[in-house]
Prior knowledge:
The protein contains 19 helices and 31 strands. The protein has 615 residues and is an alpha+beta fold.
Amino acid sequence: MAYSSLTACVADLEKNGHLVRIKHQVDPHLEMAAIHLRVFENKGPAIYFENIKGSPFPAVSNLFGTLERSKFIFRDTLHKVQQLVSLRNDPMKAFANPLKYIGSALTAFSSIPRRTNSAKKYFLKTTIDKLPQIKNWPKDGGPFITMPQVYTEDIDKPGVLKSNLGMYRIQLAGNEYELNKEIGLHYQLHRGIGIHQTKANKAGVPLKVSIFVGGPPSHPLAAVMPLPEGLSELTFAGALGSRRFRYFYDDEGFCISADADFVITGTVNPGENKPEGPFGDHLGYYSLKHPFPLMKVHNVYHKPNAIWSFTVVGRPPQEDTSFGALIHEITGEAIPKEIAGLKEINAVDAAGVHPLLFAIGSERYTPYLELKKPQEVLTIANQILGKNQLSLAKYVLIAAREDDENLSTQNIAGFLKHILERIDFNGDVHFYTNTTIDTLDYSGDGLNSGSKVVFAAVGEVKRNLATHLSEADFAHFSVENEISVALPGVLMMFPGKYLNAENTLIQIAEIKEQLSKIDITVWPLVVLCDNPLFAAQNADYFVWVTFTRSNPAADIYGVGEFIKNKHWGCTGSLIIDARKKPHHAPEMYKDLIIEQQIDKFFNQDGTLNQNEDFF
């Protein structure tokens, strides 16, 4: 559907049974987020909150809560955009099959932004405190905008075609912010807005920022799309929505999305920061309070029938998981085609996206040699770690397509099994130390600071993997140790809580001694964690615990570890210490009182209770 507004999308979803209204007044302090989370967990509909305490505006969430609903929203345009992306990667397809791609020209026309000054008269003004003050998690530093489209322009090349539209969280109040006059702008490494702010800072001028909320559903999706350099998010929004991105400039020179429900304009002055956070984030932990750019609010615009759009992030899976799945549907092979030899890639959502990345590449450097070792795949891994947001990956596990044509990066357990069967820890582990990592990842030694590692595995199967620990082998471990088998070849172990680095070395030495008494060839990976039973429940829990709570250079050990020519390796099992450590960010937990309060909205099976008093 070519939705002209968020209102049109809401009406269409409601008409087709994909949305429910909650008429009962709800509290934006934790209650709205709790309702959203429970509905999402049960694969429920989009939610329209009609009556929000403290705000005259309604709100909607869980629009993209399932991949099926996302596909329904873009049912008339998804295949056209997929064709357009396909043509960008291989223009010769149009010549080979011109009739198939004839519609791509019309889609391309929809991608051209359109200036329309007539829309100015439809916008009214309000203040920050009148917006829904939604706080998602108990320890959040205040209310946040969680579905914003943050617009900036290049001061050297002004205009919409060289603009950046990104989704960066916005803190509306709390901390040291002066209500209605200041808000917090948080963005991570490798974001387009950073380039714009750097230029503005160098020139000594304020950066103009426009924050759009709502609008056609193609707009927020465009803000999170990993688009190639030089391709504007506004053009993508137009193509996906089959409606040209409409905009105008207000009297102060700020760009306004004519189809947005809300627009907040303001400036960021060079070097002017204030503490932002904490915020319960998509890794499943709070990102802590840090200095981030301060935005001085100029105006808060809204449409007469404006709907506030929001989401809730937390330990995967969440609504942004469906975002990721939809992005994969659209881009297909676009990203792999940008790196020679790369066949498939998956930033693993269950591990929080950036902490863990699976890749499959070609290994063709020495086909004339019988003994295979990682060569081309290492070149590919290096390119991955130098590519836009992919460079934020912390653990990169890469395999060769030639070893298994059916291997998939989407199958977590299967991919890990493939790697562990083939990896040679003597030479296939490659560290990147003292480097940048994801801003939200606190496993390192400071903000944005930590290490990375590449596990590269090619060739024939080198070992069989055990699936259970025999009683005889179990007897060799200390009685205090809790041990579980997470996956084939993977032992989870609790040797006691983490105390400090010195104590850890003692614990590691004891574990190595215990491992030496069993056949460790069938257990290539041992992970230390605080709750082995939880981590071993399934592959999703395993990757979340293991890869969000470890810093490769600091937390990887090995049986028979050595350093040769500055290369680290080990002759036996590799050990990852994924226990919680004092410098880690706290984990997010729901408020039990709020959970009890929202029970009235739900049936015992977790589905929404369609009680006429509430709906």
